[in-house]
Design goal:
heterodimer, A: 320 residues, alpha/beta, Rossmann fold, eight-stranded mixed beta sheet, four-stranded antiparallel beta sheet, 9 helices, 12 strands, B: 326 residues, 2 domains, globular
Chain lengths: 320, 326
């Protein structure tokens, strides 16, 4: 399989100033991130709020220009495209948002919401557009009657289906799913996850799946990356990481997750929260919360492969 | 055990332009002293309406308790006046919400409402109240509790704000804490801190907790007993371990099965087809239940039944009990 998207040394800093004449500081929202997603793969991105997941996805969508680094999409650099390629790439990368209540315009009918990207990118007549929208509705498991309804008449799960229909309308290559199920009920979540899997199988979509729910990531993704404070701290095959998480932060995340299967889960107080991303420490960013931290952790940490043949990477010198 | 809160046949109706909507029809829900009871259900199942009924604080004045009794320490709250309720709210029973930002007043430092509340409910002076507030803040593990009193809500993170809410809730040593989705908006590591603190309230102060959530995995580790709600009714209740080991109501079983698991691999998740239909006479789940027969929608509402109060289900044809592993 070939790589669909390659992110290399991507950095996105936001300048902040404390006070009118204060020193300029930088929020290191995304700091030196490198990863790639293969064609037809579902790649998971896990992390707590404020770790830079969303900034990363917005940079891939080109809502932000990166401070440094490159993104190669279908063998073309995303940030130096000519006009025609740029339009094509807008078609090829689509996004599904977390909250189906806010991501659709309440004044528009479901039909016109789904038709919007078609109007922008394809030259179709009104009749063809309507037929296309109804086909898409069918594809995401909604009846064609929904065409003339309004968002407030739909439940959360149905709205999320509309969001998915809109995202797949142009037959994109990459779909960024930003917490697509975290606003939904458990039984509806299962429906949406099944739908996403079915679509992937029948259409060969590539997913970048962002979530903080590890069990959902486990269910959906073949590979995953764990982010902390703008950096990837662990990356590799999902089955391996779930079997044996290596980085102390990944371990902490896994231990904090109450699951139905665990019988020996104990509630304990884990102190500390993620520090602010303004001028983060030079060394390991997790050191302030890590129980294994030693002096050497204040030096710069690099991502490295755990062993030669595996693709499992971690950023922790204690594992070297 | 000593029962703290006992709700029997509580009905809440909401008047709308197109008629009366039966928002809640609780057959029986009780909470013992020093016990955590979890109320689990999907959106619109009546979880929050139950909390509103106990506090008698409805989101709209169109909602009204039309039937039943809510016994709190043996006294029926339904007949109480608003004046009398005000004395209990925040003191004997208190509530924390999903979004702490909307429960804290942004123009006051967080110490302000805490001191005011403690003065009112415990009848102590300002100095004494300040001391109690600082103690409460340090109990929830907030750094520099004294300085924290002067901080504004926007200066704190979501997890810290929720901890402030817990410290406020516990300052008056309430008998009942209602936690309405307290961890839904938080990250997993912070969620664990909040669950730990709520559990500490139960263990250190003997507070009874009504924990409202839609997340079954969280419930399995914090609750002693659990009640599953569907369509404004409790459809299954019992000891948490019992319910998870051998769910009797088809809905409960399907809900548990729909959760993606970290340990086993399933290509597809089983789903519950269809949508809730509140117009059904009889069992509210009948239109989506794979085991439903014709009787389900003709015999009227099923009652909560079981061999003991430790496990009951409202189903005409409950699932067979799974024998316990010895």
């Amino acid at each position: 399989m070939s790589e669909l998207i390659e992110v290399k040394n991507l950095k996105k800093y936001f300048p902040v100033r404390k006070g009118l004449f204060g020193k300029k500081h930088f929020v290191h929202a995304v700091d030196d991130i490198t990863f790639s997603i293969k064609q037809g793969e579902c790649f998971g991105l896990v992390g707590e709020s404020g770790c830079g997941k969303s900034t990363l996805s917005r940079t891939i969508l080109r809502s932000y220009n990166p401070t440094e680094g490159t993104i190669t999409f279908s063998n073309k650099d995303l940030f130096s495209l000519n006009k025609q390629d740029e339009k094509q790439s807008r078609k090829d990368i689509q996004m599904v948002f977390q909250d189906p209540y806010w991501s659709v315009n309440p004044k528009m009918t479901i039909g016109s919401i789904i038709e919007e990207p078609i109007v922008t990118h394809l030259k179709l007549t009104k009749k063809e557009r309507e037929a296309e929208a109804k086909r898409l509705l069918h594809e995401v498991g909604l009846s064609p009657d929904f065409y003339s309804r309004y968002p407030h008449q739909l439940s959360g799960g149905q709205r999320q289906r509309v969001g998915i229909a809109r995202a797949i309308a142009l037959n994109p290559k990459l779909i960024i799913l930003d917490e697509p199920t975290s606003a939904l009920d458990m039984s509806v979540q299962a429906q949406i996850l099944n739908l996403l899997k079915d679509l992937q199988r029948s259409k060969g979509f590539t997913y970048l799946f962002i979530s903080h729910d590890l069990s959902v990531i486990k269910h959906m993704c073949s590979r995953l990356a764990v982010m902390y404070l703008g950096e990837i701290v662990e990356m590799g095959e999902a089955s391996k990481i779930f079997k044996k998480p290596e980085h102390p932060y990944t371990k902490l995340l896994f231990n904090s997750l109450p699951t139905l299967e665990q019988t020996d889960f104990t509630l304990s107080m884990f102190e500390g929260e993620m520090p602010k991303a303004i001028d983060p420490p030079k060394g390991c960013r997790f050191a302030s919360r890590c129980k294994y931290a030693v002096d050497a952790c204040s030096k710069k940490q690099e991502l490295f492969f755990i062993n030669e043949e595996s693709s499992h990477q971690v950023r922790c010198h204690l594992l070297k | 055990m000593d029962v703290l809160l006992d709700m029997k046949n509580v009905k809440v109706d909401i008047k709308t332009r197109s008629g009366t909507f039966a928002a809640l029809d609780l057959e029986h829900l009780w909470i013992n002293r020093g016990e955590t009871v979890a109320l689990v259900g999907e959106t619109g199942s009546g979880k929050s309406m139950t909390a509103s009924a106990i506090m008698k604080l409805f989101p709209t004045n169109k909602a009204k308790i039309t039937n039943g009794e809510i016994l709190f320490e043996g006294q029926d709250l339904v007949s109480w006046s608003e004046r009398k309720m005000e004395k209990v709210r925040g003191k004997s029973m208190t509530m924390i919400f999903q979004d702490p930002m909307s429960s804290l007043n942004p123009v006051f430092p967080i110490g302000e409402p805490m001191v005011r509340m403690i003065c009112k409910h415990l009848g102590v002076g300002k100095k004494e109240a300040k001391k109690t507030a600082i103690e409460a803040l340090s109990f929830v593990g907030l750094p520099d509790p004294k300085g924290m009193m002067k901080r504004y809500p926007h200066e704190l993170s979501g997890g810290q704000r929720q901890r402030v809410m817990i410290s406020m809730a516990m300052a008056c040593k309430p008998k009942l804490l209602i936690a309405d989705e307290p961890t839904t908006a938080l990250d997993v590591t912070i969620q664990l801190q909040i669950l730990y603190l709520i559990n500490q309230m139960k263990e250190k102060q003997g507070t009874s907790i009504l924990f409202i959530t839609h997340n079954l995995s969280v419930v399995s580790h914090i609750a002693d007993r659990i009640a599953i709600m569907y369509g404004g009714r409790i459809i299954e209740t019992g000891r948490t371990k019992e319910v998870f080991r051998s769910p009797r109501h088809p809905y409960t079983k399907m809900l548990i099965d729909a959760i993606p698991s970290v340990t086993n691999d399933r290509e597809r998740l089983p789903v519950i087809e269809g949508m809730i239909d509140r117009s059904i006479e009889g069992c509210p789940f009948a239109n989506r239940c794979p085991k439903a027969r014709r009787e389900c929608s003709t015999q009227g509402m099923p009652k909560l039944e079981g061999s003991s109060q430790d496990h009951m289900a409202a189903c005409f044809f409950p699932l067979e009990e799974v024998p316990a592993l010895v």
